[in-house]
Design goal:
Elements: E1 7-10, E2 13-17, E3 23-25, E4 50-53, H1 60-72, H2 81-84, H3 95-103, E5 110-113, E6 127-132, H4 135-147, H5 151-159, H6 164-173, H7 180-183, H8 197-208, E7 216-220, H9 221-226, H10 228-231
C-alpha cells in the first residue's frame, strides 16, 4: 500500500493515496436536478465496498440486482434495493441519513452512483463496476422514464433540500435535447444524469482509462443480455 506521500498521475491529474488507500486530488463536480457528487467526498468507505457507476438508463438496477445476488448468495435480500444499495448523491434524503444507513450494514456494501469515476474519491480498497450501454439505447430509454416522472412533485421535494436559486441554476444547465440528432451536438457537461451521447461516452471513458486497474470492472449491457451466466 502506498504511503500518504506517494503520488500517481492518473488521467493527467496528480493524486495522492493515503494510508487507507484513498486517492485524494482534483475531482470533477457533477450537479443535477437529482443530486450532487460532492457528497462522495464526505463518505467513509470500508474495505470491500463496491461502487456501481453507470450513466443513467444503462442497466443500473439490473447490475445492483446481480451484485446483490452475489453478495447475499441468492434472492433473499434483507431490505428493499433502495435501502441496501442507495443512490448516494441523490439529494432528497439527507446525506447523514444515507451515510448512517450504510454504516449500519454488516454485509459487503454495494452503492449506486451515476457519477463518472473522475468525480469520485477513488479508493484502492473499493471495487468500481462501470456499466456501459449503446448511447442510442440510453437516449431512447430515458423518454419513458421522463414521461412517468412527476416534475412538479420532484421539484417541490427538491426545493425542501436545495435552495431555489441552486435548483434554477441546475435546471438551466440540464440538457433536454428534443431528439437524438440534437443530443449529438451537446457537450459532455457536468450533469451526471444527462443521457446525450457526449456525456455517456465521457462517463464510460473514465472507466476505460482505468481498465488495467485491478479494482475496476467494466461491464456492457449487451454482453449481459447475450450471455448472462458467462458474464456473471
Amino acid at each position: 500500500m502506498m504511503s500518504r506521500s506517494a503520488t500517481q498521475t492518473v488521467t493527467g491529474t496528480d493524486t495522492h493515496t493515503d494510508s487507507d488507500g484513498r486517492q485524494e486530488g482534483h475531482m470533477r463536480d457533477y450537479l443535477s436536478i437529482a443530486g450532487d457528487s460532492r457528497r462522495w467526498r464526505e463518505f467513509e468507505h470500508r474495505d470491500g465496498d463496491i461502487v456501481i457507476s453507470t450513466p443513467s438508463k444503462s442497466g443500473t438496477t439490473w447490475t445492483q440486482m446481480l451484485v446483490g445476488l452475489l453478495v447475499f448468495d441468492g434472492p433473499d435480500f434483507p431490505s428493499p434495493m433502495s435501502v441496501i444499495s442507495p443512490w448516494l448523491e441523490f439529494e432528497l434524503p439527507p446525506a447523514a441519513e444515507i451515510f448512517d444507513q450504510l454504516a449500519a450494514q454488516q454485509h459487503r456494501r454495494f452503492i449506486k452512483t451515476h457519477v463518472p469515476l473522475d468525480g469520485l474519491p477513488l479508493d484502492d480498497r473499493v471495487t468500481y463496476v462501470v456499466v456501459g450501454r449503446d448511447p442510442r439505447d440510453v437516449f431512447l430509454s430515458m423518454a419513458p422514464h421522463m414521461a412517468n416522472l412527476d416534475p412538479d412533485a420532484h421539484s417541490k421535494a427538491l426545493l425542501d433540500a436545495v435552495p431555489q436559486a441552486e435548483v434554477e441554476r441546475r435546471l438551466a444547465a440540464h440538457a433536454s435535447p428534443a431528439d437524438f440528432a440534437e443530443s449529438l451536438t451537446l457537450p459532455a457537461g457536468n450533469c451526471h444524469v444527462n443521457t446525450h451521447v457526449a456525456h455517456v461516452l465521457h462517463h464510460l471513458s473514465t472507466g476505460w482509462q482505468r481498465r488495467e486497474e485491478r479494482n475496476v470492472v467494466l461491464v456492457h449491457y449487451a454482453d449481459l443480455q447475450r450471455d448472462l451466466v458467462t458474464e456473471m
